[in-house]
Amino acid sequence: MTGPRHETYGALLTACATAGLDTTGAEPIRLAENAIWRLRGGLVARIAKPGQQEQAARELRLARWLTTTGIPVVRPYPDLHSPVIAHDRPVTFWAELPPHGTGTVLDVATLLKQLHALPLPDFPIGHLAPFVRISDRIDAATTLPAPDRTWLRGLLAELQTAWTELPTGLPECVVHGDAWTGNTARPLNGGDAILLDLERCSQGPPEWDLVSTAIKLTTTGTITPVEYDEFCTAYGTDVTEWPGYPTMRRTRELRMTTYAAQHAATQPVWHQEAQHRVDCLRGRAGQRPWNWRGIA
Fold it and tell me: pLDDT of 249-258, one tens digit each?
């Protein structure tokens, strides 16, 4: 369901009316867990799921702070300092990016090295929540057989316990929370890559950000060993050598699997991929890497 027929279109109209913004010609950029709409005047509206007001407000505050540090990040619309609530959804407004492509693995390493070197801000940013929404996603994964959903809940509980026993790693810092190439943008006219989607930005272990690239080698098989070596060289460490890597890798794999399964419940095109990911986790599809397909 796209365009004016999408469930977030009504929230877009209401939020823009509240903010005094024109919705004529509004176009969807991406309609996923968060809906992104392009507006006139170089603006973008980001519509989160219901009940995410606190997270949206924190994301805006973090984005404004990060713009003062010199790190290239997506910029909030300057005239609106709080989310607009419409149809129980927080709506935030951002400056549209220049024409761009997706960033590279090296861009991710460069941006993370800058981000992780920052001192913590003088306001609370919350702590990393690696298991947020996973339980809800399992509940929503109605195309999966009941035994598979039960197994996923057991894996979730196992990993939650394992996180309390993680070995000592790098010092906690500001982390992005969902650091992969899809959350970076490289302007086509040159310039630095830009860090996007700060929804999960918080205080936490930097290894979590590094795992998102490491699993592209060890789990999904979407980058080469040479690319991964370049990433590690640019950042300065290889997270796969840390004893806590298997726990974080499995947690990220669980997040990716339940994300696919949730979408498969409403988009049959992803049913096969979601089941394949479950089969991989359950040992039914051989050894890693498993060459998972991306979920739009």
Answer: 999 999 999 9
